[in-house]
């Protein structure tokens, strides 16, 4: 039997998790229980009852859980070896943690948690891509100035893709495209002609005629897209994740809304070839997202990540094709991919890297902005709300655009803000259009812009 690793530290890394109640929080907390080198000591979430139930389901003894209402009470609970569950940041004891994992997904609160942790000398692992897209550059700069770590959390697609890019570049490849699959597969049953996307089904019998790429790749992709046009396949979460990748790599979107082709994994190298070679990509180094098409019984891409590279010696790559690697029909491009993202299960890797100082990421810069383009005419007085599983905002679509002097409003700075003027359909929302933008996050965004691309 292969047993768990022995402790490598004299004392475990003490972790605080904000936004504890949810799928991500649960996966991280379950994994931390298996590791002798780190432990969750503080959980922050307004839904105290929900977190309490989750902890019980995870097998945490109720006597170990405290619900302090002040910093002093939290410090006392942690000192007694108990797990402190607090409803808001006012009761966090930053003296008794080494790493803050921010996972609220809420701009104002999450930025405040991360900023306060860095001010206090605590490393930050950022899971909230929404905050990263707005304030990540400034938070990383603050961490660097203080000799601390600020890292995107392994287990979510941005950090996974950044690790894959690091490996690909270390091997000496030229990157043509990089990205991920969307969260939900398109599972097509040729016997019934039905496509199932996470429980939403449509009749698309014509898709059976386009299960393999024709000689004209883009024509096949157009035909597939037409068959599934009634399904919502893009999400703000996708754009946000690719924006985060852009911060650390300099990659930009080929088109502002990304291509979202309907693709089977063995086609990735043909689909994401350059346009002059018959693929989609106009400019190399482009970030993108695809909708995974699979048949019943076929494995999912599982929201995984990919990089498309130019190949070299034809004999080498024909050998690799023979071993099952995804190489384009021309032999000029290849797909290197990881078909998984394990959420909080992988985040302990980032927690350890923060404390050990072993991360190799480049400093982020605002190479692109995740902006909001109005999908309808918006009236002055409209108040924007971030809602739903994908944290989307009604009335606007997320787009990835080039940075400017600070006029364009980042998508998630719209959260809770009110429009000061009518905005016609198709326009980017600007910061001057908004009232009630979270002040701390806005200042961080402007600080990040001032650092340059």
In short:
The protein has 453 residues and is α/β, with parallel strands linked by helices. It contains twelve helices and 23 strands. Strands 8, 9, 10, 11, 12, 13, 14, 15, 16 and 17 form a ten-stranded mixed β-sheet that branches. It has a seven-stranded parallel β-sheet with strand order 3-4-2-1-5-6-7, sandwiched between helices.
What do these coordinates show?
The chain is α/β, with parallel strands linked by helices and 453 residues long. It is 29% helix and 21% strand. It has 12 helices and 23 strands. It has helices at residues 23-32, 48-57, 71-79, 107-119, 129-145, 157-170, 217-227, 236-249, 268-271, 314-322, 347-356, 439-450; strands spanning 13-18, 38-44, 65-66, 83-86, 99-102, 123-126, 150-152, 175-181, 186-189, 194-197, 200-203, 252-253, 262-263, 286-294, 305-310, 326-327, 333-338, 369-374, 386-387, 392-393, 396-401, 418-419, 434-435. Helix 4 (107-119) links the parallel strand 5 and strand 6. Helix 4 packs parallel to helix 5, helix 5 packs across helix 12 and helix 6 packs parallel to helix 8.
SSE layout and pairings?
Elements: E1 13-18, H1 23-32, E2 38-44, H2 48-57, E3 65-66, H3 71-79, E4 83-86, E5 99-102, H4 107-119, E6 123-126, H5 129-145, E7 150-152, H6 157-170, E8 175-181, E9 186-189, E10 194-197, E11 200-203, H7 217-227, H8 236-249, E12 252-253, E13 262-263, H9 268-271, E14 286-294, E15 305-310, H10 314-322, E16 326-327, E17 333-338, H11 347-356, E18 369-374, E19 386-387, E20 392-393, E21 396-401, E22 418-419, E23 434-435, H12 439-450
Parallel strand pairs: 1-2, 1-5, 2-4, 3-4, 5-6, 6-7, 8-14, 9-14, 12-14, 13-14
Antiparallel strand pairs: 8-15, 9-10, 10-11, 15-17, 16-17, 18-21, 19-20, 22-23
Helix pairs in contact: 4-5, 5-8, 5-12, 6-8
């Amino acid at each position: 039997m292969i047993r768990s690793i022995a402790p490598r530290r004299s004392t475990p890394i003490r972790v605080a998790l904000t936004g504890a109640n949810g799928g991500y929080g649960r996966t991280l907390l379950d994994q931390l229980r298996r590791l002798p080198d780190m432990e969750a000591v503080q959980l922050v979430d307004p839904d105290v009852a929900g977190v309490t139930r989750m902890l019980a389901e995870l097998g945490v003894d109720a006597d170990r859980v405290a619900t302090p209402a002040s910093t002093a009470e939290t410090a006392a609970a942690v000192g007694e070896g108990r797990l402190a569950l607090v409803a808001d940041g006012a009761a966090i004891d930053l003296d008794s943690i080494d790493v803050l994992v921010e996972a609220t997904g809420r701009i104002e609160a999450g930025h405040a948690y991360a900023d306060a942790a860095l001010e206090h000398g605590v490393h930050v692992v950022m899971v909230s891509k929404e905050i990263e897209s707005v304030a990540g550059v400034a938070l990383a700069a603050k961490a660097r100035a203080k000799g601390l770590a600020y890292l995107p959390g392994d287990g979510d697609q941005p950090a996974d893709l950044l690790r894959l890019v690091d490996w690909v570049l270390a091997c000496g490849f030229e990157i043509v495209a990089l990205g991920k699959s969307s969260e939900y597969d398109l599972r097509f049953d040729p016997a019934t002609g039905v496509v199932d996307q996470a429980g939403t089904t449509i009749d698309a019998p014509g898709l059976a005629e386009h299960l393999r790429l024709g000689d004209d790749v883009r024509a096949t992709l157009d035909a597939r897209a037409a068959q599934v046009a009634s399904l919502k396949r893009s999400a703000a979460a996708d754009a946000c994740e690719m924006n985060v990748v852009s911060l650390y790599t300099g990659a930009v979107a080929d088109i502002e809304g990304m291509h979202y082709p309907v693709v089977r994994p063995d086609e990735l190298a043909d689909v994401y070839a350059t346009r002059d070679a018959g693929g989609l990509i106009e400019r190399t180094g482009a970030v993108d997202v695809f909708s995974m098409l699979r048949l019943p019984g076929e494995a999912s891409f599982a929201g995984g990540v990919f990089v498309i590279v130019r190949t070299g010696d034809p004999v080498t790559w024909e050998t690799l094709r023979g071993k099952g690697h995804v190489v384009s029909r021309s032999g000029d491009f290849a797909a290197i991919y990881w078909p998984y993202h394990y959420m909080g299960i992988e985040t302990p890797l980032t927690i350890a890297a923060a404390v050990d100082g072993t991360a190799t990421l480049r400093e982020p810069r605002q190479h692109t902005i995740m902006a909001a383009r109005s999908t309808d005419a918006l009236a002055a007085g409209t108040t924007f709300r971030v809602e739903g599983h994908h944290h989307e905002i009604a009335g606007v679509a997320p787009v990835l655009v080039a940075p400017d002097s600070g006029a364009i409003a980042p998508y998630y700075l719209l959260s809770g803000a009110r429009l000061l003027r009518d905005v016609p359909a198709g326009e980017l929302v600007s910061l001057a259009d908004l009232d009630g933008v979270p002040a701390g996050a806005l200042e961080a965004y402007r600080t990040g812009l001032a650092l340059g691309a």
